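Q: Given only this backbone (136 positions), what sequence would you predict?
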């Protein structure tokens, strides 16, 4: 069973990434190519980054303006238990952090949506959620 108190930092990871990138797009959407370039940059420079004791960023992708973070959870947890945790705590925190930090808010405004996908260490899909600028 996953220890809920141990999951504290992995929803903050996007803030760390985008504090090093600068987006001054002023509500202009990134092209598909530009969005894919951002994902590629993150993958080249930050792929397989340990976020906290149980969470690792596997990679990112951007397809048709949907920017996706793929995470791996290193402890055994059932999809149902993890989904419950994500929707009761982590999703709200991620949206608040994305919306309140100027760097990530600018990025959110420049894409269609952000998706967080979670997989267990053995490849089992756990859950995902998406949000966009209108959730702020």
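A: Predicted residues:
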């Amino acid at each position: 069973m996953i220890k809920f108190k141990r999951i504290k930092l992995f929803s903050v990871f996007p803030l760390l990434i985008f504090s090093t990138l600068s987006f001054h797009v002023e509500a202009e959407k990134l092209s598909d190519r530009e969005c894919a370039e951002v994902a590629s940059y993150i993958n080249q420079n930050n792929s397989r980054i340990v976020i906290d004791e149980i969470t690792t960023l596997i990679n990112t992708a951007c397809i048709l303006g949907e920017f996706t973070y793929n995470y791996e959870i290193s402890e055994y947890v059932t999809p149902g238990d993890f989904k419950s945790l994500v929707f009761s705590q982590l999703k709200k925190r991620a949206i608040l952090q994305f919306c309140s930090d100027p760097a990530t808010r600018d990025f959110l405004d420049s894409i269609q949506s952000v998706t967080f996908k979670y997989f267990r260490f053995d490849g089992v899909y756990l859950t995902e959620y998406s949000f966009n600028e209108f959730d702020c």
